[in-house]
Here is the input.
Amino acid sequence: MIKKEYTEEYRKRAKELISKMTLEEKVYQLRHPAPAIPRLGLKAYNYWNEAIHGVARSGVATVFPQAIGMAASFDEELIGRVADRISTEGRAKFAAQDEYDDRDIYKGLTFWAPNINIFRDPRWGRGHETYGEDPYLTSRLGVSFVKGIQGKDDRYLKAAACAKHFAVHSGPEAVRHSFDAKATKQDMRETYLPAFKALVEEAGVETVMGAYNRTNGEPCCGSKTLLIDILRKEWGFDGHVTSDCWAIKDFNEGHHVTATPAESVAMAVNNGCDLNCGDLFAYLLQAVEEGLVTEDKIDNALENVLTTRFKLGLFDEGGAAPYAGITYKDVDTDEARALNLEIAGSCVTMLKNDGALPLDASKIRTIGVIGPNADSRNALVGNYQGTSSEYVTVLEGIREEANPAGIRIFASEGCHLYKEKTEGLAQAGDRLSEVKAVCANSDLVIAVMGLDATLEGEEGDTGNEYGSGDKPNLKFPGMQQKVMDTIAASGKPYILVVLSGSALALDKEADRANAILQGWYPGAQGGRAIARILFGKLSPEGKLPVTFYSEKNTLPDFEDYSMKGRTYRYMTEKPLYPFGFGLSYTDFDEKIDAIKVNGSGTSGSSAAFKAGDRLDIDVSVANKGKMDGGVTVQVYVESGINGAPIRQLKGLKKLHVAAGVTAHTTITLDESAFAIFDENGEAKLNPGTYKVYVGDAQPDERSRELTGWEICSFEVKI
Here is the structure.
């Protein structure tokens, strides 16, 4: 984080610059395309840039797995390395673009990432931009991402990260411009706010973006409660706040909390929104004339915004010194591709395996690869993506592995991704006969099904106009289920690979497929990583960052923001595949070696704990299998308190353990791991006996059924 004395210096310089501006110049500096002011030596700058899984929308850059896929790695350190690479490429591209006087949109160093909203409902189209359904996992991965983006220098930011969308935002997309997300104080503090708090207080995130919707009656981009009372006063946020794009006009057009654009922009600035993504802040001139907002308020907002540019070194000769040596040669490097392949492999989550995987190339002569996502580049990347110099689809990856072994590949699209036919004049199911022929001529079949960002994503960006980006249900769209029925009916060994950014209904395939891999949107190298897992060159190590619901489960109303019945923390029904679940090719044995409170060992399987204590859990993980592999040590806490979450993830550590080797780690819990939020949103350490579980999965009934594991546990008495 930048040292306080440098921030104070930048604020002083920002004030001096502002003092030389006219009111009109100030106002136009508060829109995302800030124009040049030649008489002050101020270059044009566009604040809008995207980077949730790579530098986006500005040409060639490394396209990493979509955020939900990276979340499946459960790997804080790896996420940090990815973010560091993203900011390196961002700096490199910025230097080249600036050299040629290109200051267009998507060309700046202010990246509007990460998206740390909670993926509370599997139908939400933008859920794949997030790190999943759990506040703790989202916090840990979000903090690592921000630190990687912003760098380690204490004087300059490498790039500026942005925590979005503040707050309580996760659909429905169709009504986001008028919707009021009503959340209790308990749900706010327990679910919707923790990740934002962590990014502000731990990572020093430079920017926070408001959401489109209202939260408990206040439009998020003009909410005194969120932007002033909580963000600035309670958490001590010292960066700038930006609106979501064209969200300010929703105040009067959608939410109807103001009557005119001038009232809307005044409400935003008066309540802590500094920068307007959009053009409505031009009405600030009228708002000043009408006495709705003061010029001092505008000065304060501009000071926050310009200070970010000073932190980036944009006003200093030669730029930010530690990063001045980054050039365009640092874009799309061999090292970046290797890192991309590494994290793509870490994301893939194996949900079922009856022994069909890994494939033994010496025993296979033909493989059928069927499905609309088998050779789809769109299914690799998700949304908010850049442009890769190389894409490896699943079909291409399988060919890379199969060809040297002399294995013939039979391929078929099988069906359109969501339509009933692939050719306009054909009958429905026009590729089913080809599917049957491929199955008949193959020793085994790999089906590659799912979605892409034309079906799930942001309102206005996707092709599913019926859902505005959201899913109507969890079914595979179009003829995909019919194709899978046809494959299963062939009697051939059948492996399902799902490329999607969210949970789909897998009940039928869970019963009849020999193996299931959830590949997410695995990035430009994703097909290569998936193929290496299929052929046993890598062991799958991903864990589900979201619950995969059974078709028997009841989904609460999409517009109900109560957490009751939602996610693994409050769900009482048995899911199909639980949060935190994922299989491996190798066998891990996890044991608790010691439990220590404030450095002192405890006796037996219980520990006494009080406010201010620190509890250390020493864990050993033995890889008893024949393959090297990654394992995630997960720590869950159960309070047994009525109205509290059933259990909560409160610690995690990703380890990579060679075959035959035992690794050791220590996970530390403080009182926040045991505190429960009451109905007033206050965290309290309640007396009682808490259960702490340590293992490679959740301690729920379904995880035990799927794995056969008994999770280590002990009691904590408070």
Remarks:
- The chain has a mean pLDDT of 97.
- DSSP finds 21 helices and 25 strands in the chain.
- The domain at 4-330 is CATH 3.20.20.300 (TIM Barrel).
